[in-house]
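Fold sample X.
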Amino acid sequence: MTWLISDTLIENLGWTLLHSIWQFALVAGVLFVILKCIDRGATNVRHFFSVCALFVAIALPIATYLQISKAPGFADKASSIAQPDEQFQDGTLTSNTIDHVRGWQAISRSQVAGEEGGTMARLTIFLRQEAPTIFPFAVFLWLLGVAVFSLRMAGGLLHLRKLKSTGIEPVTEDWRRRIERLCTELGITHKLKVVSTNLLSTPIALGIIKPVVLVPASLFLQVEPRQLESLIAHELVHIRRYDLVINMVQSIAETIYFYHPCLWWISKQVRLEREFSADSAVVRALADDRVVYAMALANLEEIRLSANHAPPLLAAAANGGNLMQRIQRILQDKTEIRSARSAWSAVLALLLISVVLLAIFSYSPQSIVNGQKQPSGRKIAIGFVSIPPLDRSANPPKDSDATARLIIAKLTQNKVPAIGFVNGSTISDGEKLYPVRANIVRLWRDAGLEVGIGNFKHVWFYNTPYDDYIALVEKNEAVTKKLLGEKAGQLRYFSYPYLNTGKNAEERDRFEQWLNARGLTSVKYTIDNNEWMYSYAYDMARNDNDLNTMNEVREDFVHYMAKMFDHYEAYSQEMFGRDIAETMVLTPSRLVADSADELFGMIRKRGYTFVSMNDAQSDEAYKTPENMFGEFGNSWFERWTYTKGNKLREEPAVDAEIYKTWKERGPKGN
C-alpha cells in the first residue's frame, strides 16, 4: 500500500506515529492525575476534562505532522551527522558543517568517556539513523489497521441506519405528551423523534443532525411509566449535550489511532464520565427521585441480559458504562462537594491543565526531529521600492502623501529600520521637483530611515540598452542628491527594478563594477513576492469604497506572505542548512500601511529581528555566486538554486480573486 505514496510522506507519517506514542501517554497521564484530584461528585467537571484530553490527544499528531512537513528533510540531516567527512568532498566548510562535525565529535567523546548523557545521545542518533528504515513497514501496518477499523465503523453505521428505518412505530399520544414534558423540563428546544422498535432491548439515541430516540416496544409493558420516563430522559440528556457528536469523534479517533492503548483508555474515560454526568442530569430533572431511576436501570439490565442483546457500538445507550458504579452513585446521599476540597481540586486541576497546554503549545516537533532548537536569532531587512509609490492605481499625490506618513509611522512604531529606494521620475522631470511627492522622500529621510536609489524610470535592465540604463541611474542619483541636499549623506544601495539584472553575466558584472566605483552596492532580495498585486486589488477596493473586500484583501495578503516565508525559509535550509539573514522587497502601498501591524507581527512571531540592509547583507551567504539571466526577475534564493543546477521550488500562488482583479482592471500589457 505504501508504494502509492511518496517517500517523504511515508517518512513524515512515520515520525508522526513515533511521536504519538509518548504524546498519548503524556495526555493520558495528565488526565489520570486530574481525575484523581477532582471529587467524583463533580461529574460535569470530570466529563469536561476527559473530553478536553480526547481532543488534545487527537490534535497533537495532526500538529506534529504539519510541523514535520514544514521541516527540511530529516534523512539528509541524519546522514550528514553519521558521515561528517562527506561534507568536505567539495572542498568547502560551512558553519552548519562545523556544527554537525562538532556534534558528532561530542557524542563520540561521551561514548568513550562514559558521560552521563551518552546513552541519550546514542539513542537519539540510533533513532535518527534506524527509525526511517522501518517507517515503510510501520506505515503499511498503520494503513492496514485503519482500513480494518474503518470497515468495523462502517458496519456499525450501517447497523444504526437499519435500526432507524426498520420495525419502528410512533409512540402513543399519551407517551408523546410525556416526552414533550420531559423535553421542556430538560431544556431541549430542537426537534427530535421518539419511536418504538422491536429490534432492541435498550433505549438508544441516534443521529446528529436529526436525532431519534429508539425505545424497545417491550419496555412500555415491562417497566413502570415513571421508570421508563427516567430512561428516556437519559437519552434526551445525551441529545441535549451533543454527546452523539463526541461519540462519533471517539469512534473516528479509535479508528485512526487504534494502535495506542492510552487513546483507548482516554476514550473509555469519556464514555464513563459521560454516563455519570447524564445520570446526574436525569436525577435533577426527576426532582431527586433517585430510587426510581436506579430501579429503572436495574430492571433494564435484567431485561437486556435475558434477551442477550448488546447496545449498538456507535449509539448512546441508557445502560452504558459501568452499571453497578452508576447505580451506587445514584443511590448515594445527596452531598455537595466540600468547599475546601473543591477549591483545592479546582486550583490543582487548573494548574495541571495549564502546564500540559503550555507544554503542548511550546512543543516543537521540528526541533525534536531535527535535533535542533527552533531558530530564535533570525534577521530580516526590508527594502521599499519605490518611494514615492508608482502610479499603478492612479492615486492622487495627496493620497500618496497620507500613505507615506502612515507607513513611516508604522515602521517607527514597529522599530523596522527599512530602506526606501527613490524612483526619480515620480518626483522630478529631471530638472524641477514635484513638491508633494518630493516631500515624501524628505519625510522618509527625516524619520531616520535610510534612502537608496533605483533607476530614474522603473525599467527592465534586460530591455534597456546598457548605456541608457547607466544614464538613467546617474540621473536618478543626481535628482536624489539634489532633493536631499546636504542631508543626503552617503548613498549606499541600489535596487534593480523588477529584480532584473540584465541579459548576461558580462553586462551585469560591468554594471556592478560601475556601481562599486560610485560607492553603491546592489541589493540582493531573498524574499520576493507579489505584494504589488494584492496592493493593486486593495487600491481598487478603496476606490470603490468596498470595505468588505478591503478587509478580505488584507487578511489574504498576510496569509499569503506567511506562505512566502515558509517557501523561502525552506530554500535557506536546503542551500545553507541554516536561517540566513533575509532581505525582503515591498512597495510603499496603502495595503502595507494598513496591514503593517499584522504583517510585522507575523514576521516577528517567526523569530525575526528587523535589521538594516547593511547588517543583513553582511551575511556570508550573499557572497554565493549566481548566474541567472533573462527577461524576468527572481529572488536570489532562486538564482543561487538555479546556478547550482537544482530544481526550483513551486512558489505559493496568488489568490485567484486577486489575480483576476489585476488581469481585468490592471494596466494594459500587465
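Fold sample Y, listed below.
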Amino acid sequence: MIKWIFTLFVNFLSISLLIAQNPAPLNYPKGYFRYPLAIAPRLNANFGEMRPNHFHMGLDLYTLKKENLPIYAAADGYISKVKIEPGGFGNAIYIAHPNGLTTLYAHMNNFMPALDQYVKKQQYLLESWSVELLIPNGLIPVKKGDFIGYSGNTGGSQGPHVHFEIRETATDKCLNPLLFGFNIPDQVAPDVYSIAVYNRDLSSYDQSPLIMPVRKTAEGYTSVPLRVNFDKLVFAVRATDRMTGVPNNNGIFMATLFENEKAVSSFRINGISYDETRFMNAHIDYKTKLSGGAYFQYLYPLPGDKLNIYSYSNPGSYLKLTDTLKHNYRMEIKDAYGNASQVRFTIQQSPNSFIKTVNPGILMKAGELNVFESPNLQVYLSEQALYDSIYFKNSVLIGGQPLTFSPVYIVHTPLTPLQDYMTIRIKPDKTIPYPLRSKMLIRKISKDNVTVRKAEWEMGMYSSRFREFGTFQLVADDQPPIISGITQGANLGKAAKITIYVRDNFDEINNFRAELDGAWLRFSQRSNTFSYVFDEMCIPGEHELKISVKDEAGNTTTQTYTFRR
C-alpha cells in the first residue's frame, strides 16, 4: 500500500511539470473500489466533460430514471464529511479510505439512519439546514458494500442520478474514476469533428480560429491542407467520446499532437481540484463557445491557465514554424480506456507575413494587476483574473428607469472569461434618498442572465464584486420578498409537509428562517421553495409558525401563521 501511495505521489509530481515530452503513466489500483449501485453499470456523464465554468469532476451514474435506489460504499473507510446545500451537490457523503483516497456520492435523497440522525442533530445545534460537517475519524465507519443512503435528484441535479467522485484525500484533487477498473464497457473511440488553429501573437480573444473540418476514413480522420500567414501556432480540438451501447456525448480524456511522429504537445484531463476547475474557461476557446459555437480544447495553455494538465516539448506555449515547407501532423485523441482516434493534416506557412492590426481599448495582461478608472466608474482586476491579454473597452448607455441611480455601463464583453472576482465601483448620478442608501445593489446583465449584488459605499462610490464582464447599473431595491404556501389557521392533520414559496423582485434570497413555537425548525431548500416534512419536532396540537425572509438588499418580510396538527 505504501509503495502504491508513493507511486501516486510521483505521478502527480510528474504531471505538474508543464514542459515534458510525454505525460507520466497513471497506475491506479484496479478492483479496489466497487460500483456504488446494484444495477448494471451505465453512465449519464463521464469525468472531464465541459460544463459552464467548470469541468465535470466525476461520473454521473445512471439510476434507471428513478430515485431512491440504494447506494453502497465503494470501499472500506469512514464517513469523513457530509454536505447539504440547495444547489451544487445537494445531499452528499464523503468517505475517506485507508489508501489515501476519498469517494463522494452526491444528489442523494436520504442518508442511512445513523448518519441521518447525526446530521439532523448538528443542523439543529447550528440552526442551519445548509451544512458542511466534518465528521471525526472512525465515528461512522463503513465496509465495502455497506448501504449508505438512497439516490435522488437534489441540489443542482437536472434529473435522477448519482454523482460519484474519487479524490486524492491530501490534495482534494479529483481523479478520473474510469482509471480504477470499473466494469463499465467501452470499446468506442472518440468522435472528432474539427481542428482549430490560432495565432499565438494575438490574444485568443482578438481572433477567430482557422477551422479545419475533418473527414473520417478507414485509416482515421483527415483534413485538407491549411496555409497560415503566421508562425506561432496553437491548436485546439473539437471532439467527444461515447461508451459502448450509450448514445451520450461525453468528454475526451487526452489529446496529443505529433510533428513527424514526435509528440510536441498534449493535455490529459485528470487530477483537478475544485479550486482549479474554473480554469476550464482557459482550456477552451471561450469566445467561440459563448458566441454559440462548440467546445474547442487547447493543446497548449493560455498565459493565465494554471492547470497542470499540459505537456509540451518546445520552450514556448505554441508550435513555431521556421520555414515555408509543408509540415505533417498527427493528432491522437483518447478516452480513459485507451480507445483512440487519429487525425492527420498538413500545415504550411505562407510567405506573406501576418499584419497585426491596432486594437482600440486599454491593454490589460494576464498575470498583472489591471485597473480602469474614470470619474464615475472604476474596474479592478487582480493578477489572477485574466487568462490572456485583452484590450479593455467600456461604454455608457442612458439609464432613466425608476430606482436606478447611474447610467448603464457596458464593461468589456461577456465573451471574455474571468478566473477571479473583479471589483466594480459606480458613482451615483443623482442624490439617493436616505431610506434607500442601505438598499443599494449593482445589477449585472450578461446575455439573459441577470444577477444583483449588495453594493457597499466606498470612497464616494458604491462597490461590489462580480466574476463576469457584462452590463452594470446601480439600482435601489425597497421591495421586500413575498411569502406564500400556507393559510392562516390551517388544519394540517392530514398533510405530510409544509411548503413555503418565496418570491422576490430580483430573485435573490439572502436568508430564510423558520421558527415553530419560538424554536428554529429545519426547512430544506430547493431554489426559492422551502419544505418541512413533519417529524417529532411538531407534535399534534395548535402551533405557531414564524417565517422570516431577507433579500440581497436587506429587505425583510416576516409572517406568523397558526395551524393545527
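Sample Y note: The chain has four domains: 31-180, 191-349, 362-476, 482-564.
Also: Residues 31-180 form a domain with the Glucose Permease (Domain IIA) fold (CATH 2.70.70.10).
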